[in-house]
Design a protein that fits this description.
The complex is a heterodimer of chains A (157) and B (408).
Chain A: H1 2-22, E1 37-39, E2 46-49, E3 54-57, H2 59-66, E4 77-81, E5 87-91, E6 96-103, E7 106-114, E8 123-128, E9 131-136, E10 141-146, E11 149-155
Antiparallel strand pairs in A: 1-4, 2-3, 4-5, 5-6, 6-7, 8-9, 9-10, 10-11
Chain B: H1 2-23, H2 27-47, H3 51-68, H4 72-78, H5 84-142, H6 147-180, H7 186-198, H8 205-222, H9 229-257, H10 262-294, H11 305-325, H12 333-350, H13 352-357, H14 363-380, H15 385-407
Helix pairs in contact in B: 1-3, 2-3, 2-5, 3-5, 5-6, 5-8, 6-9, 7-9, 8-10, 9-10, 11-14, 12-14
The chains are: A alpha+beta (157), B mainly alpha (408).
Chain lengths: 157, 408
């Protein structure tokens, strides 16, 4: 009877310690990037943001949009991160904004926000916390976005 | 004028369009716009050629700052590690620095303009002095007048050359003050301005200097029978001064006024300077040697500053030692009087400035010799006759007293 009691005690202690370790977290982290990054893809489609330390390939996004990843068809990739840590990615010619969640060595689609059917001509992101503003500077269309979608369409010309 | 209008246009366009530009712009575009305008203003500051252009640019910078100030927080972030304020401060600092440089250049251009006027005055005054000296020289060369009248002509000629030399002394001083203090960058600016041929050839300081050199070489050749040792010393001092000033400002003058013939000007003036130096040096040492020989001061051979000082020092030291060895007689006293007269009236008085200015003797060398001359004077002074009589009477009285005591 004596040993089972000790084993139970040790098991409880380890469980308590492990759970204490797991629950250590810091709240209210602001991931927001104040100004969007405008990235030019290489011939392979790689984009690198040296200031914010992220690099990925644009071809999967391009394929998702245009069903074509044989060559790079976008001139500039627009990228901004909101305060919750989601990346908002789009490019000229895209109909959608891709909200991506950082995962282990990757980006996982959180939301694909459809903003137009004609393709963005000259998109740009502004951070307007807690939202991200998307402007098509060519048409003056603006959209207020968060990771769930379009909050409210402010104006349309 | 055109540049000022461009700046004004830039200012107006910037003021009118800036609000509209930001209406539907992305923050990234505002940042890019800020950076582009900053770079544009920096270029305008660098290209500005007048102080009033910089003044206009400072106003544009103020507007630039106020137009972007509403985005200062975003720009602080976007421009990291720089900031909105530091970028604007950088522009203002560059503008002030450029304004300071342009002020110096404008002041110096103004001074240069004044100097050009002065050079014109120098040229006409020098021409008058030269023609007066030449006509006097011709007059006494061709004169069949009495010896007394001829002597008067020669004296007037020498006086005229002296006046001309004094004028050149002042002129090279003025040139030196102006051209030796040119700020960095000014020479290049002035070279662009005056090398283009906007300056009249007669007002070109290089022409004036060249004519001074040629005139002085000619004067030395022509004046061998009329100049005194003092005249030669003055001419030697003048050439030393012109030579020194040329070493200091010659490169600047050639750079500014040499135009396409910079190397030619430099070579020509330096060659004339060399000729003048050798001619003035030979004439001066010969004249000095002749003067001392005439005064029966046997210094021994000398033909440069160093050997002249050694000859003087050795002469005075030996004479002083010889005087010291004479107890009663004072045969060297006459030698001392002759030398002392030369030393006091000529070296210490009439020639002193020229000797020191031309480094024939330095001030410390003159002081050394002067001290030895004083010592020589003390050693060579004859025993006073009155003291000899008193000494003789005293001696006779003592002998008389001794004789009287023996007789008693």
């Amino acid at each position: 009877m004596k040993y089972p009691r000790i084993s139970l005690f040790v098991f409880m202690a380890v469980l308590l310690f492990a759970s204490a370790c797991k629950t250590f977290e810091v709240k209210n982290v602001n991931y927001a990037q104040q100004v969007e990054s405008v990235l030019t893809p290489t011939d392979n489609g790689d984009v690198t943001d040296s200031r914010y330390g992220i690099a990925f390939n644009i071809l999967p996004f391009q394929y998702e949009e245009m069903k074509d990843s044989s060559s790079v068809l976008v001139d500039e990739v627009r990228l901004i991160r909101n305060q919750n840590g989601f990346y908002f990615i789009t490019a000229d010619g895209f109909n959608n904004v891709y909200v991506m969640e950082p995962i282990n060595s990757g980006l996982k689609l959180k939301e694909k926000i459809n903003v137009t059917e004609q393709g963005l001509v000259s998109p740009a992101f502004n951070l307007r916390s807690p939202f991200v503003q998307l402007i098509d500077t060519a048409t003056s269309e603006t959209f207020t976005l968060n990771e769930k979608g379009i909050k409210k369409e402010e104006s349309k010309s | 004028m055109k540049r000022s209008l461009n700046l004004l246009t830039l200012l107006l366009l910037f003021a009118v369009n800036s609000t509209a530009l930001f209406a539907q712009q992305s923050d990234y575009q505002i940042k890019k716009d800020f950076e582009n305008r900053h770079a544009e203003l920096l270029t305008n500051i660098e290209m500005a050629q007048k102080v009033n252009e910089i003044d206009s640019l400072i106003m544009v910078i103020d507007d630039f700052k106020s137009n972007f100030s509403e985005h200062s927080e975003m720009l602080d972030y976007a421009l990291y590690p720089e900031s909105f304020d530091s970028k604007v401060a950088n522009l203002k600092s560059e503008a002030r620095s450029s304004e300071h440089k342009l002020l110096i250049i404008e002041n110096q251009a103004e001074r240069l303009s004044e100097l050009t006027e002065e050079v014109t005055r120098f040229r006409s005054e020098l021409s008058i002095l030269n023609s007066r000296s030449d006509s006097l020289r011709n007059a006494f060369t061709e004169s069949q007048e009495s010896e007394r009248k001829l002597s008067q002509l020669v004296t007037r000629y020498r006086k005229s050359v002296e006046e001309r030399d004094e004028f050149i002394f002042d002129m090279v001083d003025s040139l030196f003050v102006t051209y030796n203090q040119l700020a960095p960058g000014t020479i290049e600016e002035l070279s662009k301005k005056d090398g283009s041929g906007t300056i009249k050839s007669g007002d070109n300081p290089l022409v004036i200097i060249d004519s001074i050199l040629e005139e002085n070489i000619e004067t030395l050749k022509a004046g061998s029978n009329t100049f005194s040792t003092e005249d030669y010393l003055r001419i030697y001092a003048l050439q030393t001064k012109v030579n020194d000033v040329w070493k200091s400002i010659g490169d600047n003058l050639v750079e500014i006024y040499g135009g396409n013939d910079k190397a030619k000007w430099k070579k020509s003036i330096e060659s004339d300077l060399k000729d003048w130096k050798s001619s003035a040096s030979l004439s001066m040492w010969n004249s000095l040697d002749g003067y001392l020989e005439q005064k029966n001061v046997e210094l021994g051979a000398f033909d440069n500053n160093s050997s002249f000082f050694k000859a003087l020092d050795s002469f005075v030291s030996k004479a002083s030692k010889k005087s010291d060895e004479e107890i009663i007689s004072s045969s060297t006293y006459e030698d001392f009087k002759t030398f002392s007269e030369f030393w006091t009236t000529k070296v210490m008085d009439e020639w002193n400035n020229y000797l020191v200015e031309s480094d024939v003797l330095t001030a410390s060398q003159i002081a050394t010799i002067d001290s030895k001359v004083d010592n020589w004077g003390d050693n060579s002074e004859p025993f006073p006759t009155s003291l000899l009589i008193i000494f003789g009477i005293g001696l006779l009285a003592i002998i008389g007293l001794i004789v009287a005591l023996i007789v008693k």
